[in-house]
Amino acid sequence: MTNVVVREDETFEKALRRFNKSCEKSGIMADIKKHQHFEKPSERRKRKQAQARRKNRRRWEQ
Q1: CB burial class (10 A; 0-12, 13-18, 19+) of residue 35?
Q2: Over 80: is that where the pLDDT of 1 sits?
Q3: How far apart are CA 6 and CA 15, in angstroms?
Q4: Is 35 among the domain residues?
Q5: CA–CA separation, 55 vs 27, rounded Å?
Q6: Domain that holds residue 34
Q7: Is the pLDDT confidence value at 53 over 90?
Q8: Distance of alpha carbon 14 from alpha carbon 8, whole angstroms
Q9: Residue 15: predicted pLDDT
Q10: How many domains does the chain fold into?
């Protein structure tokens, strides 16, 4: 659970920005987007294989 304590003399917009950034860092937003629609097992396999290919490509480039 992500929480942000609003500091003294801090605007709501700044606190909201800090909250959004902490949610993004913890991966909450990515998880929500991932579970928004049903993903077929074949699509999940394809996505994971593509991710592995990208990871290997980065490893070989270094």
Answers
A1: exposed
A2: no
A3: 6
A4: yes
A5: 19
A6: 12-61
A7: yes
A8: 12
A9: 94
A10: 1
